[in-house]
Amino acid sequence: MADVLFLKLLTLKSDLGWFRAIYKGEKLRGRQKGITLGAKLIKAAYPAMVPREAAYRTAVAAQQAAKALGEAGQEIVKAEKVKAREAGHIPTLVTIYGPGGKNGFKVARRIVLQRKNWRLDGQFIDEPENEPGRFYPALKDGDLAIMAFSGIEFPTAASVLLLGNNPADSALRAKLLPMVKKRVKSMVRLDPVEMQALADTLGLGEDHPLRSMATDTVVAYEMEQAAFGDPGAAEKVRARRGGRHMTAEELAASLERAAATGRVGEEMVDWYLQEQTPAGAPRRHRRMWPDSANHPYDFEIFDATVALEAVLDVKSTSGAWTLEMFMSMSEVEHAATSTVPYFIYRVSEVSEIGAWLRISGDIRPLAKAISAAYCPAYPKATRATTIGIRPADSDIVWSDPIRLDIAELASASEPAEDEEGEEEDEEEGDDGPEEDDDTPDTAP
């Protein structure tokens, strides 16, 4: 599943040096070790990267001005370098497939702004221990990469499908190769619907990486909403797919994804609450799962005397926080009668590397209003089980968004300098020669 899909023509000069075996085997030089992303295309897909780029350039300019001050400007240089790195580095979890139908593996990397281009960068990509020759000499100048990015504001996860000149990739590679041209149109945006149709035409299996990479995110989010109980979501899926309904297999997969999203959201909130506990202080919260998996809330919060202070329920989604969330009537009725504040922790944009958290105010007044409006109106022998709430449109007061990073992958991916020096402490913005960004906004 991805928010945006690109096709990239790979060159030795700008892209293939990301793979250590190719870098060494081709005796490449320089520090350009990453896949160059067309600046216009990536910023069109993620407009929030534009102010980040502006902040980066401001910090780089401030570094240059401070360097002119000599010793007196060294602290300013250090501070501005930190600002440039924060603006110009986006932690990204990357899954790499291929070439030749090879299975995917995950690496923590980042998207980095270097001079005028963003790059999928970080460390060298090593060949798996049991797959020598996977990248070198298998990949050559002129081979292809299909790149799928996901993330609401920024691309926080990426899948890269490498296509080389081999029997397993030949049919797909031949269809895509005419879409790109070196130094004229080296990267183009792909239509996921067209890619699914191409996969059908070529008879690619359901487990082929292109199938999942080209999944429409709107459809995926609506399937997740359907799994959470939204009665209108299935109809939205049908309308977007030209009348094709959700299959039993798709619904089952959506239920599984929704459950996994919920578990990940709770795990991150558990981590967040622990982080809020002062060092050396006793744990002041308790997660109800797995001891009480069907409880009307997910966590209990205690005060310094270990008395119950509040309860909270986690509502997670892989989509935007504004998507409708669902409360069971048992949750509503418990909140309406609770003797302590009841909060909702809305976890959104859940991905492999993190999520965003918004904390509600006490929802007991809303729960009482819902209970008063709905419960007396039930016809005889009926009872509602779930109610949908649109977070941004409701009367709930929300905190500013809080970023939750899983295992702080950004810092974990900062390696020590090795013999090739791929992680030199270079001046931000000084990255040596690069290929010009000559890609148009869309494919013809």
Describe this structure in words.
- Residues 292-352 form the Protein NO VEIN C-terminal domain.
- With 444 residues, this protein is an alpha+beta fold.
- It has 2 domains: 4-215, no CATH class; 259-406, Trna Endonuclease, Chain: A, domain 1 (3-Layer(aba) Sandwich), CATH 3.40.1350.
- Helices cover 32% and strands 21% of the residues.
- It contains 13 helices and 16 strands.
- It starts with a strand and ends in a 32-residue tail after the last helix.
- The model is unreliable at 409-444 (pLDDT under 50).
Number of strands: 16
The overall number of domains is 2
The computed structural class is alpha+beta
Give the helix proportion (percent range).
Answer: 25-40%
Task: Please give the count of helices.
Answer: 13
Order of helices and strands: EHEHHHEEEEEHEHHHHHEEEEHEEHEEH
Report the major sheet: 8 strands, mixed
> Terminal Cα separation, in Å?
24 Å
Percent range for β-strand residues: 15-25%
Quick one: overall form? globular
Organism: Rhodovastum atsumiense
Pfam family, one: NOV_C
Domain Protein NO VEIN C-terminal: 292-352
InterPro entries: NOV_C
